[in-house]
Amino acid sequence: MNQTFIRHLHRYVARYSVSASAARGQRSPGLVRAARSYLSEVPLRSFAVGSESRFGQNLNRHTERLRIVLPQGGRSWGMSRKLLNIFLRNALYTGYLCERYHLDGAEDWYEIPLDSIVAKRLRSEAKRLGLPRLPRWPGVKHLTPETSDLYQGVARRVAEHLGVAPVHLDALWWGGSRAPAA
């Protein structure tokens, strides 16, 4: 694929990743447009790294950069992380982008995008698997890095139990069929 097509595909993935439903409840005019604009320029190659710590550093850096470009009323860390994670998952699932930027090399470190539905499922799975109880879900707008880390930790344990990367939990849970028994 030529670079022009890849560039258009990158923008397309940013556009469909940041939908009105993904940003629901934020009541911040311009949030969708600003997030799409930022994600259209995120260097995907920065997520094709060989170490989990480097991946995490890049994820944190781009979460913060996205947060800063959002409109004043929508500058929450949680919304920025959710939108970035949706975008990265969709880029991973887009064969041409995945192949061009070697995104699958870091697949195990991608996070599941958190929202109230995923949080409820993670709380249920934590109880079912005998994992520590998660704190009350604060909502995406009030999500902190510390609370996110707790939920992502449970997601990693659940994903490990199911034999998949955490980013794929959404596909298992909402893909129309039950997750395979571990």
How are the secondary structure elements laid out?
Layout: H1 3-17, H2 31-41, H3 52-69, H4 77-93, H5 95-101, H6 116-129, H7 145-162, H8 169-174
Helix pairs in contact: 1-2, 1-4, 3-4, 6-7
Describe the fold and architecture:
The chain has two domains: 3-109; 116-174, no CATH class. The chain contains eight helices and no strands. It is an all-alpha fold. Helix content is 58%, strand content 0%. It has helices at 3-17, 31-41, 52-69, 77-93, 95-101, 116-129, 145-162, 169-174. The protein starts with a helix and ends in an 8-residue tail after the last helix.
Helical region count? 8
Oligomer class: single chain
Radius of gyration: 16 Å
**Number of structural units classed as domains:** 2
Uncertain stretches: none
Number of strands: 0
How far apart are the termini?
A: 38 Å
Strand content: under 5%
